[in-house]
Amino acid sequence: MRILPPLTHKIEPHSAGNYSRLFFVYPGMLYSFEHSSEQKSIETDIIIIGAGPVGLFAVFEAGLLKMRCQLVDVLSQPGGQLTEIYPKKPIYDIPGCPGVLAADLVQNLLRQIEPFHPGFTLGERATTVEKQADGRWQVVTDRGTVLTAPVIFIAGGLGCFEPRKPPIDNIEQFEEKGVEYFVRNPDIYRNQRVVIAGGGDSALDWTIYLANVARELTLIHRRTEFRGALDSVEKVQHLAQTGKIKIVTNAQVTGLQGNSKLEHVVVQHDTEGEFKLEADHFVPLFGLTPKLGPIAEWGLAVDKGAIEVNTLDYSTNVPGIFAIGDINTYPGKLKLILCGFHEATLACQSAFTFANPGKKLSFKYTTVTGIDGLPATAVL
Asked: For the chain, percent helix, then strand, then coil, each to nearest 5?
């Protein structure tokens, strides 16, 4: 299987009106997402709130039914958490892909939906939703863009999320100057002194990955036992035993020091007291705090921060609004990308019927119909 190389982007002025156009460029592909400085009105068949992997795949399934989609995301590029938080993290449970990097999965999804020409409203948050006299929904963003469609898909993943920051008084002083809450580009840690704090999967996974990138790497955890997968724990312990990394347990980072950038972290150990470590980067990985944001005010049935849905078609308690991916909840829910793909597929079938009352839905296999713009044979 051919994996597309990493995307690049650039911003250019739009020749007509007060717009800037953001280009995502792949070999042989050009995606253009317009950002307007004035109010802009868009009409479509499905408004998809969230441009993560599940939202992107929903475009594909909707496209098979000849339904147009407009994606809205507060992030500045498609991919959701895969692009924003862990683009270089491998994913192993996508059917047909023994292993794929998160960013590569996003690229492949963009390639897959290219024939259906979706629209993107990026860098904008969906703030209000209102039912119109003609039965369609109107969504308005925080930048004044007005979107109208008979159907809304909420595919916002965890919703609006922010990192859990450790209680260090001056931590904000060193943000972007040595303190990072996400590993977006592992190359910035090459030949650097890195301190990672945390005991879950993220901290373990990035410790393993960066062990061969950083000059020095220290993992600090406030307990003796780690919470991550046993296989990851064993790999981290092996790295420590072979001298590749250092592990400090029963300790916490309590202070940061440096002039124009981070130079030292202050560590408080339960029994050994306080000491300093030289560090170019401090990466506290304590998870994310998910919030529904404005969606919580839309009259949807919500349970523990997730939207309740009917598993027949992943519809919400509000007709015409569906919720797919990590943002929904139901008995037996698994927060996996592949489950979100399934949810998107069934939701699109019902969305067609809802938007086209009385029109017969004809189910066809893509192996029979084919898709213009996509290869008919595997790309090796």
From this structure: 25, 30, 45
Distance, CA of 164 to chain centre:
17
In this prediction, residue 119 has a pLDDT band, given cuts at 50, 70 and 90, of: very high
At residue 48's C-alpha, the angle toward residues 92 and 317, to 5°, is 100
* CA 103 – CA 90 distance, rounded (Å): 9
Each residue of 180-239: pLDDT tens digit? 987 867 899 999 999 999 998 889 989 999 999 999 999 999 999 998 888 889 999 999
Q: Do 240 and 293 reside in the same domain of the chain?
A: no
Please give the average per-residue pLDDT across 343-347, as a whole number: 98
CB neighbourhood size of 363 (10 A): 7
Say if 374 falls within a structural domain. Answer: no
Q: How far is CA 337 from CA 102, 115, 244, in A?
A: 11, 22, 33
Distance in angstroms (rounded) separating the CA atoms of residues 297 and 299: 6
- Per residue in 126-147, pLDDT (tens digit) is 999 999 999 999 999 988 999 9
Indicate if 176 and 316 belong to the same structural domain.
no
Answer whether residue 377 is part of any domain: no
Which residue type occupies 302?
Answer: V
Is the pLDDT assigned to residue 35 strictly greater than 90? no
Q: What are phi and psi of 323, to 5 degrees?
A: -130, 125
- Rounded CA-CA distance 57/344 in Å is 7
What sign does the CA torsion over 323, 325, 326, 331 have? positive
Chain center to CA of 124: 15
Structural domain boundaries enclosing 193: 165-286
* CATH number of the structural domain spanning residue 213: 3.50.50.60
Assess if residue 150 is contained within a domain: yes
3-state secondary structure at position 21: strand
Report if residue 217 sits inside a domain. Answer: yes
Predicted TM-score (pTM) of the model is 0.64
Q: Are residues 18 and 94 in the same domain?
A: yes
| Residue carrying structure tokens 């955890």 | 221
Among the candidates 286, 312, 328, a domain finishes at 286
How many other CB atoms are found less than 10 A from the CB of residue 236?
Answer: 23
Please state whether beta strands 216-221 and 246-249 pair in parallel, antiparallel, or not at all (unpaired).
Answer: parallel
Give Dmax (Cα) for the chain. Answer: 74
Q: Are residues 185 and 276 in the same domain?
A: yes
User: Which residue among 286, 303, 328 closes a domain?
Assistant: 286
Do 134 and 185 belong to one domain? no
